[in-house]
Every structure is written in C-alpha cells, then in structure tokens.
Amino acid sequence: MVAKTLFGFEEVLARELRHLGAQKVQIGNRMVSFYGDTGFMYKANLCLRTAIKILKPITSGRVRNEKDLYNFIQRTKWEEYLSNHDTFAIHATVNSTIFSHSHYISLKTKDAIVDQFRERTGERPSIELDHPDLAIDVHIQNDMCTVSLDSSGGSLHHRGYRTATNIAPINEVLAAGLLLLSGWDGQCDFLDPMCGSGTMAIEAAMIACNIPANLNRKEFAFEKWLDWDMDLFEKIEEACLNKTREFNHSIIGMDREYSAVRKANVNVENANLTDFIKIKEGDFFESNKEVEGPLHMIFNPPYDERLEINIEEFYSQIGDTLKKSYPGTNAWFITGNLEALKHVGLRPSRKIKVFNGKLESRLVKYEMYAGSKKAKFQNK
Q1: Are 306 and 329 contacting, i.e. CB atoms less than 8 angstroms apart?
Q2: Average pLDDT over residues 71-81
Q3: What spatial distance separates the first Cα and last Cα of the chain, rounded to whole Å?
Q4: Is residue 87 within 8 Å of 133, Cβ to Cβ?
Q5: Which residue of 135, 180, 243, 278 is surrounded by the most CB atoms within 10 Å?
C-alpha cells in the first residue's frame, strides 16, 4: 500500500507505520509505501496522524500511448471491485512526456471500465464525483502506470471533530505532523498560546492519550467496498482504543479573540476531549508561564499582512514574551514569513522546512532555559 503525506513528514509517517506494525516500509517523495493485510489497511486509516490517504495498488504496467492505457485498464477484472449498479470516480496524476493531461487519463480510464461492464452485462456503473462507491487512483510516472483503490475517500485531515473554524485554520494532518516533529509525546504540560479553533490542542491531546487520529471521522471509502468486513473493523477499532493511555498534565489553548475561544470549545467537545483540554481567553503577550515544570509550546502565529498586524512588532513581541515570561519552555512555531523570524530577537535551536498548503514555511524551535543558559550548562 501507499500512504500519502505532506512534504517534510515522510520520516514521521514511516515511524508511525513501523510503530503500527507495517512491513517493508519505504520512504518516497510525499509518500511512504508499506505492506499489510486488510485489517492493517483499516488500522492505518484509523490511526495514522500524518497520512492524507491510503492507496491500495491493484495493478501496474507500462503504457506508451492511449491505446496501451485503454487495453491495460481493461485487463483488470473490475467486477471484483464494482457492480454495474455502483458509482465510481477516478483521480489521475501524470508525470510523463507521453501523457500530459490528467483529465484525459481519467476519461480514457473511465471509458475502459464502462466498456468492460457494457460488453459483459449490457449495463454500466455511473460516475459520481462526491461520494462514489469506489474511488480509483491512476498514477503515471513516465511510461509506468499504477492503478490503486483509494481506501480513505476524502483526505484523512477531515478528522470529523472540527465543525467550527476561523480564518485559515491549520490543517489537522499538518498540526499533528508539527507536533510529532517537535517531539511532543505527552510527558509534560502543553500550551498553544494562539489556538484559533483549537486544532493544535486537540491533536496534542490525541497524541498524549494515544487516541486514534480518525476515531471521530464519519466514514472511510473502504466501507463501500465489496469486501468490507465490519466485524474485522470493529475488532481493530476496539483493539486500538484499548491502547489509549492516561495523561497527567495540562493542555491549554489560549486566544485573545472570544469568538475563537468559543469555536475551539465546540471542537474540543466534538472530539470528546473536554477532560483533557482547557481553552481560555487571553493575550499571549500579557501572559506568564503558569506551570512549575517543563512546558511544551507550539503555535501558528499570523504572518500575513492582510490580517492588519505590524509583522515586525508582532514577532518582536513573541521573542520578548518568551524571554521574559516563559522560562523552562520548549517553544515551537510555524511561519510562512521567513523575514519575520529576524524580528524575534532569539536564535532558534532548530529550523525545519515544511509547507503550509503551498506556502513554504519553517517550523522553528526556541529553547527558553530556566535561569541563564550559561548556568544550565555549568550545572550539567
């Protein structure tokens, strides 16, 4: 199978897969391939935090022109995956000098499948783009064509808990990936001081308690497959829930906008995490560290001039607040404004290249020591 992900999260996803028990894990570009049975496919969709989709390849071969493609698609016994009363959709991606238009590839694939059913039964399945019974993925790299079944359906960042959002909310897979890249494991207190609709705090709680990422999701594409095994899925879901763990620290989301706090609370409730997360109204720049021990902080500050903030002043205040009010804190944040980082006034101990949508960004870490940094190293 193939798990697709965002740029920069390939290693994290590979670690997740190995931890779940995947075999022959191999890292690619924005994807990780692996082996597993049907039950593992269910588990991967349910549990993976940094996967966008899980594809199950069913055939691959060389195609040098459109006739080759048509014949290649027709060689698959589509009655094993579809009935003539079902609906299907095709998503094609092309990286080839032979074929240039992904939409054309989709049309030729559709023709081959429909013609096979019509010749065999006199009837044909229909195209349904929004909620098909079968989602088919066609990938052409040079002259190599791989046909897969999309076991996820809609992107796995649609976790099912977020019904209330603000302007430009962070993608759930991106949030989970940033948390895992930052080393968050639930072993200390956590703060998102600019929490927006609460996504980072919710993903942090799910990681801390080892709750399956997509437990609240409405449906997966494999539930419409001809070989769908509900009993097996329920057993796997139960086994995953039995691996949840206790969390004995605090997770706090803070935002200065009351509307954001209200929306975040709705989402926390949807995720059934009110016992673990506290959302409160407050201005980070007027706040202080409220816990005694280590604090893990991660946030997504505004970095767009359209939001009517003075970028230079805003990022300078981030640095001042961390320095003055947050000793003993590992502070991480993501920004797509690389110039803005110069105004923080602190030297990041790590910079990791990631993308927020199509925007190249950096996840940066600032280690705020309790006492002076010099004293910390003298005491070692």
Answers
A1: no
A2: 95
A3: 47
A4: yes
A5: 135
